């Protein structure tokens, strides 16, 4: 299975522009609803962020999130897809800390390691993400060596091809 077949290269500028638009959208929803906003994307390194297989992995994540949140009211939700990757947002009637706990459990199991689920709250008019560290968890682990992912990512400890191979294996083991 080729995770990237049918995907289009996204430039760094396109990725950064989308990140800025996403942040604006999140902040708008926080102000509108005054409730936590769940923001979900797949964590795929490299210039191809979307493909039919990535969309499938993403849809599995959306389904898992909806199942885990079945007992809570979802005031509104949005699902969009760009060359820079698919995105899902939900405004949930749940304490932000409880919501983050649920999402950490999703991210820690199997294919969930490819999920990036942020919980945002309004803090002095700005969007603030509840972090794993805020709840006493360690940071996310690297898919290859189990060191902190941020450390490996910043230092580019692993070649992109090796990361892609690890991700493709995780996907093949799941789908």
Report what the structure shows:
It contains five helices and five strands; from the N terminus they run αβαββαββαα. The chain is globular, with a radius of gyration of 16 Å. The longest helix has 22 residues, at 12-33. The chain has a five-stranded antiparallel sheet, with helices on both faces. Strand 2 and strand 3 (85-93) form a beta hairpin. The model has no long low-confidence stretch (mean pLDDT 92). 26% of the residues are buried. It is α+β, with helices and mostly antiparallel strands.
Question: Could you provide a short overview of the structure?
Answer:
The protein has about 180 residues and is an alpha+beta fold. It has helices spanning about 10-35, 50-70, 95-105, 150-155, 160-175; strands spanning about 35-40, 75-80, 85-95, 115-125, 125-130.
Task: Provide tags for this entry.
5 helices, 175 residues, alpha+beta, five-stranded antiparallel sheet
Number of helices in the DSSP assignment: 5
Shape: globular
How many strands, which pairing sense, and closed or not: the largest β-sheet?
A: 5 strands, antiparallel
Which structural class do you get from the secondary structure elements? alpha+beta
Taking the alpha carbons of the first and last residues, their distance comes to: 10 Å
Number of strands: 5
C-alpha Rg (nearest Å): 16 Å
Q: Which H/E pattern describes the elements?
A: HEHEEHEEHH
């Amino acid at each position: 299975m080729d995770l990237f077949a049918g995907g289009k290269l996204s430039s760094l500028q396109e990725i950064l522009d989308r990140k800025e638009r996403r942040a604006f959208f999140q902040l708008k929803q926080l102000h509108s609803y005054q409730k936590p906003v769940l923001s979900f994307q797949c964590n795929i390194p490299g210039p191809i962020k979307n493909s039919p297989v990535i969309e499938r992995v993403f849809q599995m994540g959306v389904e898992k999130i909806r199942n885990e949140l079945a007992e809570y009211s979802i005031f509104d939700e949005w699902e969009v897809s760009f060359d820079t990757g698919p995105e899902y947002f939900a405004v949930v009637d749940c304490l932000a800390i409880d919501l983050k706990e649920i999402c950490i459990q999703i991210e820690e199991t199997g294919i969930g390691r490819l999920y990036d689920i942020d919980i945002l709250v309004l803090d002095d008019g700005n969007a603030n993400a509840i972090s794993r560290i805020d709840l006493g968890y360690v940071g996310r682990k690297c898919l290859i060596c189990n060191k902190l992912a941020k450390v490996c990512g910043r230092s580019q400890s692993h070649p992109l091809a090796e990361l892609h191979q690890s991700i493709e294996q995780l996907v093949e083991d799941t789908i």
